[in-house]
Amino acid sequence: ILNYDIMARFRRRTCIILLLFILFICSIMMALKTLRPDRAGFGDPFGLGLLPELQQRTVLLDNKQNSLNRVQGDTVTSVSNLHSIAVNTMKASMPPVNKLEEEPSSPNYNFHIFYYSWFGNPQFDGKYVHWNHPLLPHWDPKIANNYPKGRHNPPEDIGANFYPELGSYSSKDPSVIEAHMKQMRSASTGVIVLSWYPPGMADENGEPTDDLVPVILDYAHKYNLKVTFHIEPYKDRDDRSMYHNVKYIIDKYGGHPAFYRHKTSTGRFLPMFYVYDSYVTIPEIWANLLTVSGSQTIRNTPYDALFIALLVEERHKHDIHRSGFDGMYTYFATNGFSYGSSHHNWASLKAFCDSNNLMFIPSVGPGYIDTSIRPWNNHNTRNRVNGKYYETAFSAALLVRPEIISITSFNEWHEGTQIEKAVPKRTGQVVYLDYKPHKPNVYLELTQKWSEKYRKEQEQWLM
């Protein structure tokens, strides 16, 4: 009995020690997990390359090495070796510079990206277009008087807070179009949402661009990308003009292999049109075009399509439904700027869309800054936080399981929402923002990362 008692106590003590040991190991693992950067929780493929701390440390070593070289000549061998170790460590953890361009992922046709072809320069257009954007005055004259007036003077001074790697380019330059297609393909986006005005029309600072559509379609096809249209709020846009413009687009471009058609739940393949500032037209006018019983109906005709309205305020969701639209998108890359662009409202908007047979297409962006053209608009600036802002937006979008995610934008430089490659630049009194400590293609890489994550998660949603 005594031996049995001793053995029982021994087994009990052993079990307790083993349990404590397991708990200790688990607590160590949890502690280590909490030390990982936020992005690592989503399987960050860039490792240490996206950690500003390591990048900054390497830059400091680089600066130290340069200054010592000037003073001490060859006496900095140890610092040089230390710098090489840091750089080699970073290189080992990051993908090769041209990996995305050499081995692009297949395009994700559920990733739609807004694209602008309104830029011009003297070489291709005879003058600068859009890069010389005017400084827009505040609507309150008292506030407007506190800010500068005039317009930008390219190529050194452009209407943007960042500076493009391609410089103050022309959207007509074939080499620029091809470079853009390569970048969008490397980011694993699939559908270009092209800003569009009817022939002969343009925004107040631009020139007509419809003639450029065939070239964009050709280059898009070369890179397996598709093109759809972002119909801008041109003068006198109503049910009749929209009918004629949709007919024009489908008749002229609908036969091109790069023209985008979306597969609906009923198995039909329909064109898709994003309609910017749709809310400026009353629902009754839209209903004439977009409902089966409308006087100008496009439904059940060869020009039927999916029409996606811009939602800004909460009440717009009811107007969109009454108008006969097929879905809604949020466009703005400023979390908190509008009801639609606020991430915390996306779940309720998705629920509304689901219950009313509408598509909900959230728009994610890398940040926002437009003070180069609206110098009084600091309060709407959204810092990129070295890519974290962009990743937070993607994370919020995936939570609502959307059929499509839209990206604002590839190259809306005026509003600082671009993911196109940007470079550091300082000229005269102008110091442009940049993507440091990362490379010019960091937002393309982040887009590719989230495109792949979205693909994997979507497969699980459909199971």
UniProtKB/TrEMBL annotation:
State where the protein is found: Golgi apparatus membrane
What is a single cellular component term in the Gene Ontology annotation? Golgi membrane
- Give EC number(s), comma-separated: 3.2.1.130
Provide the GO MF annotations for this entry.
glycoprotein endo-alpha-1,2-mannosidase activity
Membrane topology per the entry is: Single-pass type II membrane protein
Q: What Pfam family does this protein match (any one)?
A: Glyco_hydro_99
According to its UniProt record, this protein's enzyme class is hydrolase
Enumerate the catalysed reactions. N-{alpha-Glc-(1->3)-alpha-Man-(1->2)-alpha-Man-(1->2)-alpha-Man-(1->3)-[alpha-Man-(1->2)-alpha-Man-(1->3)-[alpha-Man-(1->2)-alpha-Man-(1->6)]-alpha-Man-(1->6)]-beta-Man-(1->4)-beta-GlcNAc-(1->4)-beta-GlcNAc}-L-asparaginyl-[protein] + H2O = alpha-D-glucosyl-(1->3)-D-mannopyranose + N(4)-{alpha-D-Man-(1->2)-alpha-D-Man-(1->3)-[alpha-D-Man-(1->2)-alpha-D-Man-(1->3)-[alpha-D-Man-(1->2)-alpha-D-Man-(1->6)]-alpha-D-Man-(1->6)]-beta-D-Man-(1->4)-beta-D-GlaNAc-(1->4)-beta-D-GlcNAc}-L-asparaginyl-[protein] (N-glucan mannose isomer 8A1,2,3B1,2)
Q: Keywords in UniProt for this one?
A: Golgi apparatus, Hydrolase, Membrane, Signal-anchor, Transmembrane, Transmembrane helix
Q: Which domain of life is it from?
A: Eukaryota
What does the sequence similarity comment in the record state about its family?
Belongs to the glycosyl hydrolase 99 family.
* Protein name listed in UniProt: Glycoprotein endo-alpha-1,2-mannosidase
